[in-house]
Amino acid sequence: MILDIQNHIIVIRGAGDIGSGIGYRLFRCGFKVIFLEIRNPSNVRRKVSFSEAVYDGETKVEGIKARCVSNVKEAFKILDEGIIPVIIDPIGETIIDIKPYVLIDSIINKKNIGTYVNMADLVIGVGPGFIAGEDVDIVIESNRGQNLGKIITNGQAEPNTGIPGNVKGYTIERVLRANKDGQIEVLKDIGSLVKKGEILAYIGGEIVKAEIDGVIRGMIKNGYYVKKGMKIGDIDPRGDRSYCYKISDKAMAIGGGVLEGILYYFNEKVENDIV
């Protein structure tokens, strides 16, 4: 192994479902992973997001434990215990102290909000908003299709389509969005089987209904203050509850792309150094 994975830290910005899929795959391969997250994450796929540690102190995703810590010293301590640290750090202030070998931006914000090539030996951006060879070293394609998970060493990912992936013929019908600003009262949480027309939540007195039959695979945290048009959940028309607690195929594919990107980059670097 060219890269000494036991002595190099990987920092992932964003511990939502995509970032968690990346972290899961890297952790399983033996890498030491630290997540940076905002103070009030709005992830809907909470059962497969390490960001839940921000609210609950600790969480598990497919058997891997993460714990919210307050500083870098605590993060290094629990890394040695086989636990993934999550630090509340929305602007990446701790990156300079962590000194990561690899920095991955998986915030999926459709634009770069503060991740640049000088922050680590290798900097990876997931999805649109990054340009490989300019603000990051590598971009990972996040759009579903033939190129999902592909590493891009020059240029950028495909633009965001705004259309969710097709599941049993459903796309936009699967996604739940806030119909107004306000605090959400969740009636049907993750894992609930629902029918079309069923009331799932209230936002400021307005009802949110299911547009299709299925299982609630994602739902924003009860009591969260949402904005009109914001994604607040999703329904899986396959109706299999077990999928609610499994990392998605998309997140796993992107995680595989990140792993490939890391190995590709450092293999190329060593070969060039030898030459």
TrEMBL record:
NCBIfam families, alphabetized: matur_yqeB (TIGR03309)
Protein name in the entry: Selenium-dependent molybdenum cofactor biosynthesis protein YqeB
Phylogenetic classification of the source organism: Bacteria, Bacillati, Bacillota, Tissierellia, Tissierellales
Name of the encoding gene: yqeB
